[in-house]
# Entry
Amino acid sequence: MKVVLLGSGNVATHLGKAFLNAGHTVLQVWSRNLEHATALSTVLKAEAIDDFKLLNTTADVYILSVVDDAIPDVVRAMPAVKGVVVHTSGSTSIDVLSCRFIHYGVFYPLQTFSKGVVVDLRSTPFLVEASTSDVLKIIRTLADSISENVQSCSSSQRIKIHIAAAFSCNFTNHLYSIAEEILSDIDIDFEVIRPLILETARKVTVNLPSQVQTGPAVRNDLRILDKHRAELDQYSEWRRIYDMLSTSIINKNS
Amino acid sequence: MKVVLLGSGNVATHLGKAFLNAGHTVLQVWSRNLEHATALSTVLKAEAIDDFKLLNTTADVYILSVVDDAIPDVVRAMPAVKGVVVHTSGSTSIDVLSCRFIHYGVFYPLQTFSKGVVVDLRSTPFLVEASTSDVLKIIRTLADSISENVQSCSSSQRIKIHIAAAFSCNFTNHLYSIAEEILSDIDIDFEVIRPLILETARKVTVNLPSQVQTGPAVRNDLRILDKHRAELDQYSEWRRIYDMLSTSIINKNS
# Structure
């Protein structure tokens, strides 16, 4: 397929490379910032543009991969196109595209993308949605070419899934970074906690998390909780988080 | 070495099997509950006891692996032994053993143990501490026989490491279980989030979490945060956690 990328961030970058590897052609990379467009288009052997007047209107699919806030602006500014226009956002309704395009949909990779971190897209779930069943076929064909895990879901399901992702990924990584800080303050390398982090994640790949909760809170071991609280004296914010999550674990399991 | 296990829970079970595999002999399994002792001792080809009068006093190492609250009781009730007595607790000082034994220490596996879940102990960090350097040699020899990742640390470091473990493992699993509940309520299988969970953990095995934070909070995308908050209307506790962790991410990265 012929694809145009609108956006040049982490998601656009990872998708663009995967499209190229799957034999698709990336015609153009549009970005508000031409330098950013150029950096990515060079990698993808595509043309860089920062002006919608230059947009190639012959592509099969236009991937709108900008920050959520910018989606309505890009939608308004884009010329009419015959191809399918999709956005890649977890929390934006498919409807944001309906005012402007005939064929449109959603192409949401449920994954965490950081600059310079290679991700296995083949196992990444792609949650797709489309304006019509014909459009869905096109979107699915593109998704199937880069992932083995493509699923349909509605916009109202997708935002809930995005929230679940915030808990399982963004908040989880923040807890890791609190651990990083606590360890760093006693001159212990973060390396010591890595096997535990990996095992905690690995365990829920074959079990449900509600079935494998461990630690002092689920045992209602109040003496340990008090000891930990005292040790967290110097970190008032971490202690509030410690209290709230411990209480929540106790509530859930009592 | 000849080992006696005091306790028959998850940690005692995982350690006992590893000792057996490494060629050590488990002489006895003590538990307050003889049925529990018997269940584990059968697996380990050991003797089950529930009475300290029957304790074999010729073992090289006694592994005290009971809930933290019970450690002082067991210490008081145990007969004097010549062998090394260690506990396996993250948040209990080595000093709890000093009143009663001559050779003692700590043998703390930094790992999450659930019933029926096989764990790779060889990559599990064992944090050890001992009353003397001679005792440390014995404890290290035993730890080295089942793990490639044995490190010394003090009791004051160990409790901080245990707190870091609560954040990275216990609290993280609780966040997974919140995701499980949110997904279940919209009839989406937990399976969809598993690749994301695994990638989030995998990413910090080669990066520091502070360097790879993603999501709407770190982007300070207040519109998405508001959308998510509205969607969490039905889950007041999850919303409080969502707010606290989002604010904490914003504070840390601003």
